[in-house]
Amino acid sequence: MKRKSALALIAAAAVVLGTGAIVRSQIDPRTALLERGAWTALTAGQAHAAADAFREAIAADPKNARLHLGAGMAATLERRDADARDEFERALALDPKLSEARVLLGQIQYRMGDPQSAIRTYEILVAEKPDNADAQATLDRWRREIELHDRMQRAVGSHFTVSFEGPAEAALADEALAVLDRAYWRIGQLLGTYPSDPIPVVLYTTEQFRDITRSPSWAAGAYDGTIRVPMRGALEKHDELDRVLSHEFTHALIRTLAPRGVPTWLNEGLATALETGDLSWAESDMQRVNGRVPLRALQNGFSRFSGAQAEVAYAASALAARRLLDEAGGAAIANLLRDLGTGEDFESAFLHRIQRSFADFDQRD
Ligand SMILES: [Zn+2]
Questions:
Q1: Which of 40, 52, 88, 255 could pair covalently with 105 via S-S, beta carbons 3.0-4.6 A apart?
Q2: What is the pLDDT of residues 119-172, one digit of tens each?
Q3: How far is the CA of 265 from the centre of ligand 1 (A)?
Q4: Contact present, 316 and 293 (Cβ < 8 Å)
Q5: Ligand 1 (ion): which residues have CB within 5 A?
Q6: 194 — phi, psi (to 5°)?
Q7: Rounded Cα distance, 181 and 74, in Å
Q8: How far are the Cα atoms of 5, 145, 230 from residue 210, in angstroms, in the given order?
Q9: Is residue 259 classed exposed, middle or buried when 0-12, 13-18 and 19+ CB atoms within 10 A define those classes?
Q10: Residues 230-281: pLDDT tens digits?
């Protein structure tokens, strides 16, 4: 599972701000033209072109807060999170009333694993805009998360740190550490990659998990830099714990290879195919829906799907990832992921690393 709240905010903000830029711009005509092109690119989701255009416009007009805001938005879409944070901070230093920059600064601070700073940013935002109900709700949710994590205990292993709420969960946390350690070596060996920084893991109740991750009801775990897992009854069964933690660890490992640019079918497909257990459920799912799902339809997030649609999306992705692992091997896939992380185009990276075109791979049943 992944979520993308910052992206949704940017899509909405780019349209509004881009329109404003054309009307309100009082700068020289060439910079105005650059700015207009930058917003158009951003609205169309062309983050790289937008980033270039904003950079050029800033060189001509460095004190323009809106240009820094736009540059930050483009950086957010490209997952250059530290650059995005710096640009939003610069925009606010130039124009403290530019509240769009504050909204996105808080989101990026949260995404970078710094909820304390995100909370401080949103406290200012809510004080300035007391009628912004979304900002207030987000601030409340972040505060609940910090409060919960402050009262949690921690079990520390060599590759993971597992946080849990009370003594009742201590045994489960120890078991989670053991399961994660096995996943670390098993999946690490398959992809030839062993993350060196300890990965944070938090065990929640089902209610806490829904509240903090806002995941759809079918989600059994989430990864956003931290592995978050609800301990519903089924999780106390050993197999389920193993399956869910292997899945989320694979997302963590993929993130170390490629912080961006990974299509959802590949990310979720690998995470699902590398769970413990076989994929016969996926094969019978695909038979039941009577056919195949083109991978191109599974590029961008599954959280919009219903439970039944999601199951088919995961099944199709897992079978494709399994086929890729069998045909090309883990090392080739790891290289493909590294290429995507450096911003290389998916189709050419696929052709180079897998030695066949993606269209050809996607055609085959
Ligand atoms: Zn997943």
A1: 88
A2: 999 999 999 999 999 999 999 999 998 888 888 888 888 899 999 887 778 888
A3: 10
A4: yes
A5: 1, 268, 271
A6: -130, 100
A7: 37
A8: 15, 12, 8
A9: middle
A10: 876 645 677 788 888 999 999 999 999 998 899 999 999 999 999 977 889 8
